[in-house]
Amino acid sequence: MNTEKLISTAKALVADDKGLLAMDESNPTCNKRFAKLNIPQTVEARRAYRELIVTAPGLGETISGAILFDETIRQQKKDGTPFLKVLVDAEIIPGIKVDTGAKDLAAHPGEKITEGLDGLRDRLIEYFQMGARFAKWRAVITIGDGLPSRSGLEANVHALARYATLCQEAGLVPIVEPEVLMDGDHSFERCLKVTEEVLRNVFIQLNCQRVLLEGMILKPNMVLPGLTCPPHKEVKEVGVGEQQYQVRLKDRQPDESSDVDEVADATVKCLLRTVPAAVPGIAFLSGGQSAELASARLNAMNVRFKSQLPWALAFSFARAIQQPALEIWRGQETNVKAAQQALLHRARCNRAARRGEYTSAMEET
Q1: Three-point CA angle 231, 182, 26, nearest 5°
Q2: 313 alpha-carbon distance from chain centroid
Q3: CA angle in degrees (0–180, nearest 5) for 161-7-350
Q4: How far apart are CA 293 and CA 278, in angstroms?
Q5: Cis omega before residue 148 (within 30°)?
Q6: Which residues are CB-contacts of 78 (< 8 A; sequence separation ≥ 6)?
Q7: Contact call for residues 14 and 314 (beta carbons, < 8 A)
Q8: Fewer Cβ atoms within 10 A, N terminus or C terminus of the chain?
Q9: CATH number of the domain to which 38 belongs
Q10: How far is CA 321 from CA 5, 58, 151, 161, in A?
Q11: Residue 228 has what pLDDT?
Q12: Residue 51, SS3?
């Protein structure tokens, strides 16, 4: 394991107020998004869309790394130039999704386990030889009646830690992604409690598996109420055991912008309790948030806490960067330039959010 190289790559992924572009959608997921916009669900359509993304002029000014899917890392521009070369030439570090998806966890109704450990060592060696320098593995945690279970949580964080160790052995920086899903009617407080428990267990397992914390990136969810959670109006002490703090919740719908500061406060305090200072950066997933809210919430965290934090707060967004561009493109070559501008706009908004300089006025330009 080349410790110095892992550390320098991890630092580079969160340097210069840039972030990660997650373009690692599986083929079925990509096809579903295409189908909603009447875009052909073909290999060529997927290749053309990904070419639109990687060739967006100036993308490297805001994006430090791009997470690719297995099909994508092997694809080329129409003129035969490999996507990997395009990214490297733009000073964007190539990465690769290596899990094979979340499947039903046996004997645990409502819970998933992420698969892909079998044969992972050999796949990581191949990806490194191709030019990838970091990898990603996503575990999904569902909040529900009695969920997550202890066994379900432990199975997922153990798999994350084993993946991370194998990545570092192969010279790849692991992006560790434990996502507490927004699906459901759970409260803000419940998400906070579960997220704290998940992250605490993630780092217990990472240490057990001897993962180099300085050579990894954490990709967590923000602390948010469930998508179908009713309006709140209360003040509660939330947390676990002696580690409690007060969160004020306004009378609001869960996805209204009035909760930006509350989300920022609760998310950062949760991270301070659970994430060691040795980790160089935290790159949030968007998790179904609107593009504007994802930017606003990241901005609030950096405005309020950036100078006090041991790690960088960055972004690793997929739909929150790509969706506006996809809706403009719709599979039409004539729309490529406009779609690229929309993509670059969202990336610039998120770089501004890292600096604590994002405002709603940026959406009107």
Answers
A1: 150
A2: 12
A3: 85
A4: 29
A5: yes
A6: 48, 51
A7: yes
A8: C
A9: 3.20.20.70
A10: 29, 15, 35, 28
A11: 86
A12: helix
- What pLDDT score does 165 carry? 98
**Per-residue confidence (pLDDT) for residue 365, from 0 to 100:** 64
The total domain count for the chain is 1
Give every CB contact of residue 307 below 8 A, 6+ residues apart in sequence.
Answer: none
Amino acid letter, residue 193:
K
Torsion sign over Cα 150, 109, 316, 260: negative
CB 320 within 8 A of CB 289: yes
d(C-alpha 85, C-alpha 131), whole Å = 9
The two three-digit tokens of residue 249, written as one number: 């919740």
Largest CA distance in the chain: 60
Per DSSP (E only), the strands in the chain are: 19-23, 63-68, 93-97, 102-104, 112-114, 134-141, 173-180, 217-218, 232-240, 243-252, 281-284, 312-317
- The HSE-up count of residue 154 (CA atoms within 13 Å, CB side) is 4
Q: Is the Cβ–Cβ distance between 92 and 60 less than 8 Å? A: yes
User: Would you name the residues annotated as active-site residues?
Assistant: 177, 219
Domain that holds residue 188: 3-364
Mean pLDDT of 5-20: 98
By the 10 Å C-beta count (0-12 exposed, 13-18 middle, 19+ buried), 6 is classed as buried
pLDDT-wise least confident of 168-182, 183-197, 229-243: 229-243
Residues 201, 274: Cα–Cα separation, whole Å? 9
> What number of other Cβ atoms are within 10 A of residue 136's Cβ?
27
Q: What is the mean pLDDT of residues 207-229?
A: 95
Express each pLDDT in 45-70 by its tens digit. Answer: 999 999 999 999 999 999 999 999 99
Full-model pTM: 0.92
CA 183 – CA 57 distance, rounded (Å): 36
- pLDDT, position 364: 82
pLDDT, mean over the chain: 92
| Least confident window among 120-124, 221-225, 243-247 | 243-247
Distances (CA, A) of 164 to 15, 52, 112: 21, 31, 19
Q: What count of residues does the chain have?
A: 365
Pair of tokens at residue 342: 């929309």
